[in-house]
Every structure is written in structure tokens, then in C-alpha cells.
Amino acid sequence: MDGTAAKERALRLVQKHAVNPVVMFAHDLGFPPPGDALLETIGRRTGLPRRTPVCDGLAGEVFWLVAQRGHRSDWVRNIRANPRVRVKVRTASGIRWRTGTARVLEDDDPRERQRLIGEGGVARRLCAGASAAAATDPLTVRVDLDAV
């Protein structure tokens, strides 16, 4: 196993079994960590909702995401099968779900996108920085949110 594969495997295990359960529990209690959001896709094989903690990339009526593992990320594969998604975000009026249509942006610079996401405050900067450090094959995804 090369260094990148070993790093990816170790980080994925830490995220899956340590970080993501804590973030999901906080969301379930109604106290999402600042700088974080939830992405809900539809499983490409099961057809069931799949929720994934992500950095809060809300910018007006667009939600920006950077997949750390690129096309190998399960949620990216789910989006390719069904681009309709929901994001649970913190807004001025509280924490709420927003629906939208996602698309993978092959030509966007994911490192620059993470930097831009981080400009949304200290919590978003910490989330985006941790995500960038863990990224092995970053890929940008844009979600055009439906009108409210």
C-alpha cells in the first residue's frame, strides 16, 4: 500500500468511526457544530437517504462542497446517480433543510474552493482546513438550491 492509500484508509476510518458519529449526534440533538452542515443524498443502490457531515459551504443560493476522496466518495457516486439533494444548514432564521440539485465541477479548483469556503468565519475555516488536510483527491461539487 503506498503512502497516499495508507493515509486515505487511516483518515477514512477516523472520520467514519470517530468524527462523523459525534457530528451526527450533535445534529440529532439539534446542536450542529458551527462550520458544519449535513448533506443528504439518495443511495444509488438502496434508494434510501444517506447523510454525510460536510463543511458549511452556503453562499447565498448555492452550497459548495469539496469531496476529499473525489469520485471515490460515496456521496459523489450517489449524486451522479441522482443529483437531487438536501443540505441542513445554519441560517439567520435557524437550522433548516434546503433542497437543491448538485453537480460535479471537474474544472473548478477544489483547493481554492476550500479557501473560499473558509472565508465564512473561524468555524468554517477550521472545517475547511481539516478537510483540505485530509483530502487525497479533492473535487468540487456545487448545489444550486431551490427557491424558498
TrEMBL record:
It comes from the Bacteria. Pfam families: F420H2_quin_red (PF04075). One of its GO terms (molecular function) is oxidoreductase activity. SUPFAM superfamilies: FMN-binding split barrel. InterPro entries: F420H2_quin_Rdtase, Split_barrel_FMN-bd. NCBIfam families: hi_GC_TIGR00026. This is Deazaflavin-dependent oxidoreductase, nitroreductase family.
